[in-house]
Specification:
4 helices; two-stranded antiparallel ribbon; globular; mainly alpha
Amino acid sequence: MRTNKALGLRNLPSQSWRINRGWVLVANIAADISAWTRLLGLHDQPDLAHAEPETLRYRLLHLPSTLTTHARRRWLTISETWPWAEAFTLCWQRLSALPQAT
């Protein structure tokens, strides 16, 4: 419940039950994605394997990088001085290597 509150359940956006029901669904999906990312991509990173959403947001999602397009391909250039660059790339590679759902 603490994780879900950190991912959006703390503040419901409306007085309408329908809108809030959708908000709760999206917050639960975000909590599931966060949990699976930690389980599948960061399981051997000691400081990120059991990290709270605020820590993941600060270390992985606020990525100091540039996204460029060249020859119909996208390139993500991550700052070399960023302390969690290796953890991010390792997590990205692991999650990209997962088979697609059928």
